[in-house]
Request: fold
Amino acid sequence: MFGYGSVFAENRIITDNTTYSGSSPIVLVNGDLTISNGITLTITNSATLIVNGDLHIRNKGEILVSNNALVMIKGIVIQENGQATLDNTSFFASGGYDGIHNKTNLPNPGSQTYIDDNETYKNLSVLAGIANNLIGRLENTGIEFTMPAYVTTALGWADESISPLPIELTYFVARRTSDGVKFEWQTASEKDNDYFTIEYSTDALNFSELATVSGAGTSTEIINYEYNYSTNATGMMYYRLRQTDYDGQTECSDIVALTLAGHQTTNVSNIDIKIYPNPAIDYVQINGDGIVSVEFVNASGRVLSAAGQQASYSISNLPQGINYVIVHTTQGNAIRQFIKH
Reply:
């Protein structure tokens, strides 16, 4: 039987009917996983299973994946008279499929299933959703996992090792004062945290250093920080907090926009804006409340195209790879990123 939050260093063979359930437990098998001899492995209710090798389903063995569960196979699914049953609320990805005796019972195309060598179930938007979902589940668990090559290659990501975040940031805000800006932030925990850097920008894309503040190293206590900055600048400014740990690795907070000529502060990441499909090829749709206009820009901040609110937007003139869109809304400006293939 799997134990709570187990990490197995070797290949595993399931010998008893096993149900793995719940949003907290995560199982990582650092090798192949085999289900055979009529045994059923059930992954359900937001549980997570990661297999660093191949998944073998043999001799009437079965894996059932349901109710927001997530399964990522780093290798391939090898089926020899076995069965995989996945419902449309679950997430399942593998690097390939080898069905020797009968076809895996995959859900209909368009569900959250990605098989790298099967065009019927190969959808980059689905793969991006599964990968990002997994990253969210592994945050703050202490489990380290390197994304499979079929994920990073297909999505154009750099090889990504998932590990515990160096800090748990509760909030980061910027407030206008009589002579400038006051920055406040709070951490619930820190691990090997060397220092923070407050960064500013006039376009929300190109940032420069404003100030540095020492971190607490390693702590499990709530810590409050603040920094006061005197400035005569006016207009819209964008700020973010960059954290640097002892080995030089960095993480950035959400962007905060502050109108220095007024008193309105908007955390642009909290504006509910959705872009799909992502990745996209020819068109994207941008949904959200109060959209006034959009600007598509490249990484250097140059505006490539602009339009008012409409049902869909052509991205045929945008370069392949990572692009940005500035969505102007009645609540503020939201900056979002998407991939064009």
The radius of gyration is 23 Å. The CA atoms of residues 168 and 189 lie 5 Å apart. Residues 271-340 form a domain with the Immunoglobulin-like fold (CATH 2.60.40.10). The chain is about 5% helix and 50% strand.
